[in-house]
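Weekly puzzle thread! Below is a chain. First person to post its structure in token form gets bragging rights.
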Amino acid sequence: MAVVAALLCASCTQPEPAPVAIVGHAEKFDPQADPGQQVTAAISMAGQTKRRIMLDVGGEWCVWCHTLDRFIDDHPDLSAAIARDFVWVKINFSPENPNKVFLDRYPSIPGYPHLFVLSDAGELLHSQDTSELEEGRSYNLEKMRTFLAKWAPR
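Winning reply:
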């Protein structure tokens, strides 16, 4: 369930689609997206909605990235928690565009997908190696619930 963000135009009552803010986890990783602009839009949205920001770093090439998306889709309680508590932003990392300059400001990434939890102001709160949330060929539901609850805004 991908939900595209809409922001209200200051001078009108018509919703205006936000070009870079992504809410929901099912959007694709876009090698053409500017991660700085994505985070700036996410900060604006997170501040307005009292949510935290989750940077999901990976790529369309990443099997585990797709596994994470399916896992979240298969667990409506996780989808609901994410929509309520986080502005989820997919940051592309691929041979086509590794976004090196952007990602160099964060701790090193041991594998993909990788999650960075940011405050509503964009400050790094936590770096999460998703292999710690895995179980078999998927993810562990209780570990994922615990992770999301721990980093949800208070």
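Puzzle host: Confirmed. Bonus trivia for everyone else. Helices lie at 35-49, 63-74, 76-85, 100-103, 141-151.
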